[in-house]
Amino acid sequence: MNAARMATQPQEFRSRRRRLMDSLTGGAIVIAAGHDSPRNNDVDHQYRQESSFWYLTGFDEPDAVAVLRPGSTTPYTLFVRPYDPTFEIWMGRRAGVRGAVGPLGANAAYPVEQLDAQLPRLLAECDTIYYALGSDDRVDGIISGLVKQRRRMAQRGAKSVRRIEDPTAQIDAMRQVKSDDEIALLQRAIDITAVGFEAAMQTAAPGIAEYEVQAAMERSFRHLGSPRNGYPSIVAGGSNACVLHYVRNEETLGPEDLLLIDAGAEYGYYTADVTRTWPVSGEFTPAQRAVYDIVLDSQKKAIDAVKPGVGFDDVHRVATRVLIQGLIDLGIMKGEVEQNLSDAAYRDYYMHATSHWLGLDVHDCGPYRDDKGQIRLRPGMVLTIEPGLYFGPQAKQTPEEYRGIGIRIEDDVLVTEDGCRVLSEAIPKEPDELEAIVMDAR
Ligand code: GLY
Ligand code: MN
Ligand code: MN
Fold first, then answer.
1. What residues have a C-beta under 5 A from ligand 2, the ion?
2. 3-state DSSP call for residue 412?
3. Most buried residue, 269, 304, 364, 392, by CB count within 10 Å?
4. Pocket of ligand 1, candidates 193, 231, 277: which has the most ligand atoms within 8 Å of its Cβ, to mutate?
5. What's the chain's Rg over C-alpha atoms?
6. Which atom of ligand 1 is the closest one to the Cα of 263?
7. What is the pLDDT at residue 104?
């Protein structure tokens, strides 16, 4: 099996299952994998395991179901697609029932076709079932059927199902704080991404297509062992950078263009998420440089604010205040910073959040607020810091020289005991350094 796929050790998956079982009292936990998604006719999109299913099982095939029964002598059962020689000829190996109990560490395994018969049997003694209703149509139906059946048989001594509880918040809470092994995988994904950005900076030039720059970058990702991206690369020249999730990547770079690339290699299922913006000619125009300096200052101040106990939204406010002050200094916005912050006038130029969690998913799981208010940062959390300014068609007051400029700078930041570590700090972002890199490439 390839190294990136096997990067997490079986004992780490086992200890996650154990922690989950310990954190939920009684009952049994049922978690469904994803399914193939058809692209057209008999061709599917490339399958990637649903992240929480991967987090708990390390099993990368679709259609599987995991059942965890704390206290049982066989606490971990996997339902898997069975061995199928014809399938193997067309699509390659499956773990099958034998692979599930061996390398994957299940105590028992069944072909997924037996789910209707076996799942009610495995859950027979449970009055609480931890399952995210709605996550899988087939499992929804089976669980609904067994609840009805047990209700009907209650007079004859069947244990009725009293609670169906969603374990998602519990799993998300585990995923939100990364272990050392997870941080090492994230760091590897980010280090690979750094090499990709280097290749992109060497390749981008006036007359080169966005998709060609993308190919050079992603070629480095693949070369270094990343099997796929964590999300579709955004390779946006000129005003395309004002389209926040521009993924068409089909235009040709012009001599005055900035190039914004937002990309992340995936490694061992963990993804980087980095953005850099630089002038393809090797020289910022004065207007581009003025905006760049504001975004960079905002990003650095927000990173400086990251430490345990700080609120998630407070980091956004630090970044946003700097952006607003910069817009006022440029004469683009009027008034006071705090007033602009509260009436959100800046949203014509900065319409996204400064941060999101990062991990197995690019927009990783876990809440940003709970009933106590904004989430406070804790060591082991990983978040992006990604302020930007965008002078697209929505920004009607923009003076001519700023029109079409879109700049975002994004790093991946680990909260540590006493502050933070910028995992992506090796990727250049100082404007003079960016200019020198592009000039040297010529
Ligand atoms: N790449 C998407 C984002 O930065 O959130
Ligand atoms: Mn990004
Ligand atoms: Mn991001």
1. 262, 273, 410
2. strand
3. 269
4. 231
5. 25
6. 1
7. 85
Q: 312-370, pLDDT tens digit by residue? A: 999 999 999 999 999 999 999 999 999 999 999 899 999 999 999 999 999 999 999 99
pLDDT digits (tens, 9 = 90+) for 255-299: 999 999 999 999 999 999 999 999 999 999 999 999 999 999 999
Catalytic site includes residue 42 = yes
pTM for the model: 0.96
Report CA-CA distances (Å) from 171 to 17, 105, 328.
Answer: 10, 20, 44
| Protein residues whose CB sits closer than 6 Å to any atom of ligand 1 | 231, 262, 273, 356, 362, 386, 410
356 flagged as catalytic: yes
Q: What are phi and psi of 266, to 5 degrees?
A: -105, 140
Q: What's the pLDDT score for residue 6?
A: 67
Place of tokens 């009805």: 148
Active site residue 410: yes
Q: Given the CA of residue 264, which atom of ligand 1 is nearest to it?
A: 1
Contact (Cβ atoms closer than 8 angstroms) between residue 428 and residue 271:
no
Residues with Cβ within 5 Å of ion ligand 3?
Answer: 273, 384
Burial 377-397 (b: 16+ CB within 10 A, else e): beebbbbbbbbbbbbbeebee
CB 411 within 8 A of CB 385: yes
Residue 405: which pLDDT band, with cuts at 50, 70 and 90? very high
One-letter amino acid of 372: K
Q: What is the largest CA-CA distance in the chain?
A: 83
pLDDT band at 203 (very low <50, low <70, confident <90, very high): very high
From CA 114, how far away is CA 59, in angstroms rounded?
19
Assess contact for 310 and 416: CB atoms under 8 A. no
pLDDT score of 25: 82
- Ligand 1: atom nearest CA of 245 is 2
Please give the helix or strand (H or E) that residue 186 lies within, else none. helix 180-203
Q: Can you name the residues that pair with 420 across neighbouring β-strands?
A: 415
Which residue CA neighbors atom 4 of ligand 1 most closely?
Answer: 273
Name all contacts of 140-143 with Cβ < 8 Å and 24+ positions apart: 142/115, 142/116, 143/30, 143/119
* DSSP state for residue 242 in the 8-state scheme: G
Q: Which of 364, 390, 402, 412 is catalytic?
A: 390
